[in-house]
């Protein structure tokens, strides 16, 4: 270490150097994490596009009781059965086009005795009512439905909890394991997002949901930002060191000039002489 940078041996500058190195390493890792998220998102989109492009098939030929949901999701299927509107549930805090509301899940009982929860669409939240209107009830007759299989939802590390017991009319998420607890039939491990139905439901509600958006989100821009932050820290600190070393070499004091006492104060003389 040359004499110009001897100040780096002081605890203050050692701590600063350690902090900058830690910040740069953290920002770089966050950038690569976002790139990995981007790659995962691209793989997910490719899988969804591939499965959605497969011709529609009967529900029973795509998924059966006890199958893992990831083997069947994103497939287009057809199913026949009867809705059980008495066991319909709402999923809270769902938006459509920026408007708050609910998703309506209605079990469709199949000929074989199993049931699949059908997401019949979205209804708006109504703040002036104690209970939201679920729109028109499903047809009581046997129906033929077509739609897209989507995964159920589970609670992560955070988020609202649903009661573990009792029959719920509304849930925080489309939790199929929780719905199975209050259903008399075996529930298939997927949700069917309704696209078309015959006979149709009368009225405008619920509103059928669009297919999932296959965007790459903001992972690439976030990665660029983290790498930019790492560059600023990695380049800025050496520039700060050079500037400090230069200032010390030419005798620039570390404290601001206005904080130093006037020369006259050290000699006891007045700052200005009377004329």
Structure description:
The longest helix is centred in the N-terminal third of the chain and has 42 residues, at 11-52. This protein has two domains: 1-55 and 215-251; 75-198, no CATH class. It has 275 residues and is α/β, with parallel strands linked by helices. Strand 1, helix 2 (59-62) and strand 2 form a beta-alpha-beta unit. The two termini are 54 Å apart. A five-stranded mixed barrel has the order 2-4-5-8-6. The protein is 32% helix and 23% strand. 20% of the residues are buried. It is built from five helices and eight strands, in the order αβαββββββαβαα. It is elongated and about 90 Å long.
Please give a handful of descriptors for the protein shown.
275 residues, 32% helix, 2 domains, 8 strands, 5-stranded mixed beta barrel, alpha/beta
Shape: elongated
Number of strands: 8
Count the domains.
2
Fraction in helix: 25-40%
Rounded to the nearest angstrom, the radius of gyration is 32 Å
**Largest sheet, strands/sense/barrel:** 5 strands, mixed, barrel
Averaged pLDDT: 85
Name the strands of the widest sheet in spatial order.
Answer: 2-4-5-8-6
Unreliable spans: none
Strand residue content = 15-25%
The end-to-end span amounts to: 54 Å
Structural class by helix and strand composition: alpha/beta
Number of helical stretches of at least 4 residues: 5
SSE series: HEHEEEEEEHEHH
């Amino acid at each position: 270490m040359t004499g110009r940078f001897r100040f780096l041996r002081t605890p203050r500058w050692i701590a600063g150097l350690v902090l900058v190195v830690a910040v740069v390493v953290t920002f770089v890792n966050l950038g690569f994490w976002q790139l990995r998220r981007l790659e995962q998102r691209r793989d997910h989109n490719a899988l969804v596009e591939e499965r959605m492009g497969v011709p529609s098939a009967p529900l029973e030929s795509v998924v059966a009781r006890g199958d893992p949901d990831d083997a069947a999701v994103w497939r287009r299927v057809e199913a026949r059965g009867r809705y059980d509107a008495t066991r319909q549930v709402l999923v809270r805090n769902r938006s459509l086009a920026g408007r708050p509301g609910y998703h309506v899940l209605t079990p469709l009982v199949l000929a074989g005795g199993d049931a699949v929860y059908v997401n019949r669409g979205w209804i708006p939240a109504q703040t002036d009512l104690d209970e939201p209107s679920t729109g028109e009830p499903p047809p009581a007759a046997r129906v033929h439905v077509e739609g897209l299989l989507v995964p159920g939802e589970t609670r992560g590390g955070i988020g609202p909890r649903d009661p573990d017991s009792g029959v719920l009319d509304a849930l925080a998420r489309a939790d199929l394991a929780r719905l199975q607890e209050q259903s008399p039939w075996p529930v298939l491990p997927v949700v069917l997002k309704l696209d078309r139905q015959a006979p149709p439901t009368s009225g405008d509600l619920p509103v059928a949901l669009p297919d999932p958006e296959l965007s790459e989100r903001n992972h690439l821009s976030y990665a660029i930002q983290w790498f930019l932050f790492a560059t600023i820290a990695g380049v800025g600190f050496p520039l700060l060191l050079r500037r400090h070393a230069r200032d010390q070499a030419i005798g620039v004091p570390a404290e601001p000039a206005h904080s130093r006492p006037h020369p006259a104060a050290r000699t006891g003389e007045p700052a200005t002489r009377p004329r």
